[in-house]
Amino acid sequence: DAKTKVDALRMIQDKLGEPSRPPMFLLGIGDEGNGRAIVSYGNPDTSKNVSAYVPGLSTKLNDEFVTGTMKRAQDTAIGARRVDPSSASIVWLGYDAPQNVDVMSKGDAQRGAPAYNQFMAGISATNENKDPHVTAIGHSYGSLTVGTAAKQSGGIPGVDDVILLGSPGVDAQKATELGVGKNHVFVGAADNDPVTHLPSKSEAALGWMLGGPVGVRVGRDLFDIDNDDVYFGKDPASKAFGAQRFLVDDGPRMIFDGGGFDAHSQYFTPEKDQTSANNIARIVAGHPEKIVREEYR
Description:
7 helices; two-stranded antiparallel sheet; 297 residues; globular
């Protein structure tokens, strides 16, 4: 509601008035839909390495965005600057993300993709370096938005690398469809992250929500010979998709450890998954050869 957005805007304003490491820049703000906010840690016009992270499921302009989602961009910037000090990291909430699993359709991603591409074209145009190294990062449903943007004619403007985290699929069968070459598509998928196991539409008919991961396995045996289809296409962590999978912590199990969706939300956070945060930072800073790899699913 309006009050939620206004409170979040006030929180962002307060943060702008405080010293920040790296320095914080407000690139865009708005109250349309569930709210809009584009925030950078580090200067995106002067940094040689710039990443822009699209958040996903249940993200909106509220206090959680300011305290949690923005921190992910800040953590990425801090990590990347250890590898190359000339790095900036943006969180781009320039679209309406679905608010729960039940309402996930391609529509939000299809509406968000052109806006993201327009933003990324601006990032490349205003950067003072001749050829900045630009990384698109999609987390959760945001990975579908990034994937949809990458499949548009010409791909995402200026982007060299794509990172997909906690992805329910990107509406693609192969990494080569994302326009940067399969060696430049990187995937982090925790084995205990339920969003990365969301069943394909045919498997969902088996009542995944009742059966949990066990129901998914049964469904995959029936419908998906290689066990590599997820909600929005091929599992990005699968061999068939062909991206570069990097090591992340598996996180707590949804039921047995009482973890719920915790494994879905720790990829960026050094305090919870230092390995994943380091790998993301290396890619963003232009040194993907330093990542620790993980076997395909």
